[in-house]
Amino acid sequence: MTDRPTFVYVTFIQATPEQVWHALTDADVTAEYWAEHCNISDWQVGSAWEHLRTDGSGIADLVGTVLEAVPPKRLVITRTGPNDERPAGPGRVTFDIEPHGDIVRLTVTHENLSDDAEYVLVSAGWPSVLANLKTFLETGRVLPQGPWEMYAEMRAARMAFNDPK
């Protein structure tokens, strides 16, 4: 048993498991809903993956390894910054895709978070990305504003409110 935080998020998407799998693993599709990033890999067990900026800089803000890939049911990856020193090892993200009639239950479990601060970050990040993914799959368009912008605005307002000046 670990004292390290774990984040779990469940969403329901009107799509097939194959469509959800494709949206999680196709670089061009991830670029549509993942805010200026795409996910690059061949998605084979043991392969590397990168969360690459789409600005042409070639910078990967997150990297990891594919631990498990069972299309279209389950994808497990490690996740860390490219230069992070994490004594307990990288985070681990599991995507479980379960069909139910005309919908899919997508469960994202992010384990081995380094601390409560990382938990707060992923608690804002995953719901934003998954809301955009859901909207994209159901409508063919992403949300009109990036949900992560709301978090940044709330954080800035909170910092201004707590500023003793």
UniProtKB/TrEMBL annotation:
A Pfam family annotated for this UniProt entry: AHSA1
Q: Which CDD domains match?
A: SRPBCC_CalC_Aha1-like_GntR-HTH
Residue ranges occupied by any Activator of Hsp90 ATPase homologue 1/2-like C-terminal domain in the UniProt entry: 15-138
Stated name of the protein: SRPBCC family protein
SUPFAM superfamilies per the record? Answer: Bet v1-like
Similarity remark: Belongs to the AHA1 family.
> What does the record give as the organism's lineage?
Bacteria, Bacillati, Actinomycetota, Actinomycetes, Streptosporangiales
